[in-house]
Amino acid sequence: MQKILPPLQSAIRHSLENHSNTEIIVAYSGGVDSQALLHALVQLKQNKLISNSITVCHVNHGLSENALYWQGFAEQECAKLSVKLVAIAVNIQAKAQESLEALARDARYEALKSLGGNKSLVVTGHHSDDQTETFLLALKRGSGLKGLSAMAVESQLGQHLLVRPLLNISRQEIVNYAKAYQLDWVEDESNTDTSFDRNFIRQTVMPLLRERWPGISKTINRSASHCSAGQELLDELAEEDLSQIKTSSTSLSISDLKKLSAARFDNLIRYFLAQHNCLMPSTEQISQLKLQLQAGEDKTPMVKVGLHYLRRFKDELYLTTDFLDISDWQANLGNLKCTMELTLPDRLGGLLFTHAEAIGTSVEKQNIAPSSSALTSVCLPKEGQQVTVRFSHDNPKCLPHFRQHSRNVKKVLQELNIAPWQRRRIAFLYYDEELVSAIGYFVCQPYVAIKEQPRLLIHWNK
């Protein structure tokens, strides 16, 4: 007869059924939740009910005077259980408008993401009481269905899968398990500090709610589950809308966006931003975006969302990062007589300059169109000419290789339908003070390498 497992071990075994060959990384603080979780995993392993390798990760936040003691406790417990421990120290810097609790959590997850090269299971001891608190915190913030869904049993964490096998187990059940197996654990003194919102809910709000409604945690978690199911439907709808509206991985058709109802517009924008790991916009930011999209097509408004921007250009809405001002950046390459690599600023990649012999066709006959081509070919600088790369220009007249008449640089870039923010991120090649090329976009005709000439090849590694 098969032995009946304790509910905690049974829940863990069930959550790992489809991940039998994947390494487990246990998020371990030494508190009762993670201590019971680790013990249960080791019991399952010893009884050959799971085959996964187990690594324990203890994150030392350095926020408590007991931090080193807790790390020492983790080392002792892992030694007793014969499991590998990785201790990671993190440095948490206070930030405006962000709670210390959130910063510590983010630092913890970043540390966990740094472990293991391949996909692993990061297993945490979050339980049903944590789920209740997360729901109430989301309610306090005025969150929608996504926030009210609280924590998922499985979610992505970098290259890993974050698994919370105890979400249907109460904290009291975990404490009972720990006492039954005579486990030791540490107590974080900050857990009694009700200046933290989660602790206030745990210490003050939940006891009152349970006194009035003993089953409140189960009903709240059921609501979270309903919200999660509703969010799945919204995501399916957003995916369907996105397939019709997106013009590239980071841009949307504005004319198609305007055809959506207000609710579908909001849902699509949030889904689109979530696909790119952006912070969720506030209701006010969504309203501002709708307003900006009513501007004339000659306008280029933008709305900041976290570390990203939604920018309008003509009939498209683009998602970009925040760009640095690189207008004063310049690189002096001398006479460029040999192969040279140049790293561009602000995540723009690098340029590789190489000399090449004459080839059978000119640049024009190679069908290089005015676009962000990765390869640009120009004639070599003359003896004594100084080569520079800059991101600024004085709007000189130029004759691009694809035009019949000269025009100011600004007008040429407009002709090429380059968005205004991208025009400020084009690397311009100069010989002395003469514009040679907008690298990747055009070559000025006097500097086009004809077929009998050796040439300078510029490869833009984006």
Beta percentage is 15-25%
Q: How many strand elements? A: 22
Helix content: 25-40%
- Kindly provide the name of the CATH class of the largest domain: Alpha Beta
- Tell me the strand order in the biggest sheet: 3-2-1-4-6-5
User: Which descriptor suits the 3D outline?
Assistant: elongated
Low-pLDDT parts are 360-372
Class per helix and strand makeup: alpha+beta
Mean pLDDT, to the nearest integer, reads 91
- Number of H- or I-type helical stretches: 14
CATH architecture type of the largest domain: 3-Layer(aba) Sandwich
Count of individual domains? 3
> What do we call the CATH topology of the largest domain?
Rossmann fold
CATH superfamily name of the largest domain? HUPs
Radius of gyration: 29 Å
Distance between the termini: 62 Å
Biggest beta sheet summary? 6 strands, mixed
Descriptive notes:
- The chain has 462 residues and is an alpha+beta fold.
- It has three domains: 7-221, HUPs (Rossmann fold); 249-321, Chorismate Mutase Domain, subunit A (Up-down Bundle); 330-461, no CATH class.
- It has 14 helices and 22 strands.
- Strands 3-2-1-4-6-5 form a six-stranded mixed beta sheet, with helices on both faces.
- Helix 2 (32-46) packs across helix 7 (171-180) and helix 9 (216-245) crosses helix 11.
- The radius of gyration is 29 Å and the shape is elongated.
- The termini are far apart.
- The model is unreliable at 360-372 (pLDDT under 50).
